[in-house]
Specification:
154 residues; 4-stranded antiparallel sheet; 5 helices; 4 strands
């Protein structure tokens, strides 16, 4: 094999391996743990540039970077229904590639927020309502309506 062929083989291999991206594996969400009543939409994006059509700058791992940002946005919540949108745009110095990931983040239903754990009892609410009425902060009519609403909720 002559030197010209060897250099060409190395160059073609380098270019081929330089354009390989990293696979992203999405985690499975345990459906039995999801609090489906409190889902929220999260979104993350990452981009890269193919400079002059020859030099890849941040385009090979943009899906991984977008997924890491998506997980950070979700915090401890589980991600489901992940959608991927890939696009590109021509700019004067090359092509800009953008990956946008959108998902629904559901909290773990076994982990309740502190606000829910510290809810007041009916008698505490009624005492507070009575104090508001006695102090003149609410009228007698407002007191009766609020009291009835509390009793109906109970």
């Amino acid at each position: 094999m002559n030197i010209k062929t060897a250099v060409m083989a190395v160059l073609v291999s380098a270019v081929g391996f330089g354009c390989m991206g990293t696979q992203v594996h999405f985690s499975d969400a345990p459906m039995e743990k999801l609090d489906l009543s409190r889902g929220r939409t999260v979104k993350a994006r990452a981009s890269g540039l193919h400079l002059f059509g020859l030099i890849p700058l941040g385009i090979n791992n943009r899906q991984v970077r977008a997924y890491e940002k998506l997980k950070a946005e979700a915090g401890e919540d589980y991600l489901t229904d992940i959608t991927i949108r890939d696009g590109w745009k021509w700019v004067v110095i090359g092509n800009k590639y953008v990956t946008v990931l959108t998902a629904v983040a559901y909290p773990d239903k076994t982990k309740r927020p502190a606000a829910i754990a510290t809810q007041r009892t009916l008698s505490e609410k009624m005492d507070e309502l009575k104090k508001l009425s006695e102090s003149g902060a609410i009228t007698e009519l407002e007191y009766k309506k609020a009291r009835q609403r509390l009793l109906n909720e109970f």
